[in-house]
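HUMAN: Quick job: go over this next protein and say how the chain folds.
***
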Amino acid sequence: MSRGLRHVRAIPARFAAHVGRTVRDLPAPVKEEIHAAVLRACGDPWSWPQADKYELDDTVRVITTSAAIVHYVILTGPDPHLWVFAIVT
């Protein structure tokens, strides 16, 4: 997949419904930490490491915070965004 997003300032993130529900139910400090990490990913989608489980697809990235592990994929094209599809707390 193209890494054409390397020069984009920021792109939006979209969350799978179950991820959104999980984040919503977390304590405020944990939500804030995840929010800051996702903002970093929106600003530079390649800033987080590649997820080991998806080693053949370098667009799948993993965010690690003190309380959660969050997986997202970088989607390019006419409507580029991050798709946050998994969270483990």
About this structure: The chain is about 25% helix and 25% strand.
